[in-house]
């Protein structure tokens, strides 16, 4: 047991966490796909990509398998391994499901949140920046919404929304690349986030649901549908 622990391959990552090389390869490859550094439809050259990420091909293959299961990589046996494509139809389908599930998560969060949840949601709100600035701002946006999902106390809903968010991030990046956000919309987004938090803190599930539905309907994912049509 001790020998196995000593021999386990680990790499250091931010926040002083230790993860296996498999996990590191997974998160790094996912980042490359989500940010479109690996473009939709691009063939994955495993040797070159492993060198770029800084791992061997073994953890990279495991990362490819995992991301294939999430729909971000096309693992069709008769084709080269490729980054999954994007389309207006998929963007629309993702938006339809988000419009159903995200307001539900906010409503349940308002009904079930604990004091610890409120502290975490407010902490994440304080770190938000306009999402168009960089990938860190996009990550802060995800953490804010994830804190709300967590407060819903519904593990199935939390898991499904996590999957949706990963697939939707590519469409957010596409919208950010092709469309500027006006100062007016930036202020609107900030106000919507604040209103969602206020409704959750007040235990007002109906308001949390309504504001979140409006927020999703105006989101970058919604803009991506129009851009790709």
How would you describe the overall organization of this protein?
The protein has 229 residues and is mainly alpha-helical. It has two domains: 2-83, Winged helix-like DNA-binding domain superfamily/Winged helix DNA-binding domain (Arc Repressor Mutant, subunit A); 88-228, Up-down Bundle (Four Helix Bundle (Hemerythrin (Met), subunit A)). The chain has eleven helices and four strands; from the N terminus they run αββαααββααααααα. It has helices spanning 2-7, 21-34, 46-53, 57-69, 88-112, 115-126, 135-151, 155-178, 183-202, 205-217, 220-228; strands at 10-13, 17-20, 73-74, 82-83. The strands form two sheets. It has a two-stranded antiparallel ribbon with strand order 1-2. Strands 3-4 form a two-stranded antiparallel sheet. A hairpin with a 3-residue loop joins strand 1 and strand 2 (17-20). Helix 2 (21-34) packs across helix 4 (57-69), helix 8 packs across helix 11 (220-228) and helix 9 (183-202) runs antiparallel to helix 10. The longest helix has 25 residues, at 88-112. The radius of gyration is 19 Å and the shape is globular. The chain starts with a helix and ends with a helix. Residues 1-18 have low confidence and may be disordered.
């Amino acid at each position: 047991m001790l020998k196995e622990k000593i021999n386990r391959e680990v790499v250091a990552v931010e926040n002083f966490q230790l993860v296996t090389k498999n996990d590191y390869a997974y998160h790094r490859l996912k980042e490359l796909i989500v940010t479109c550094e690996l473009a939709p439809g691009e063939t994955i050259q495993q040797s070159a990509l492993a060198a770029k990420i800084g791992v061997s091909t073994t953890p990279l293959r495991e990362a490819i398998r995992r991301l294939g299961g999430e729909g971000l990589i096309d693992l069709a046996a008769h084709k080269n391994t490729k980054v999954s494509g994007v389309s207006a139809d998929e963007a629309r389908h993702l938006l339809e499901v988000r419009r159903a599930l995200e307001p539900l998560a906010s409503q349940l969060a308002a009904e079930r949140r604990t004091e610890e949840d409120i502290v975490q949601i407010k902490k994440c709100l304080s770190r938000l920046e306009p999402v168009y600035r960089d990938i860190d701002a996009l990550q802060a946006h995800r953490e804010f919404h994830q804190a709300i999902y967590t407060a819903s106390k519904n593990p199935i809903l939390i898991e499904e929304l996590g999957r949706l968010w990963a697939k939707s991030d590519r469409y957010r990046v596409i919208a950010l690349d092709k469309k500027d956000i006006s100062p007016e919309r930036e202020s609107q987004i900030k106000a919507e986030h604040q209103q969602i938090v206020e409704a959750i803190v007040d235990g007002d599930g109906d308001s949390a649901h309504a504001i979140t539905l409006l927020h999703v309907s105006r989101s970058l994912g919604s803009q991506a549908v129009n851009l790709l049509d």
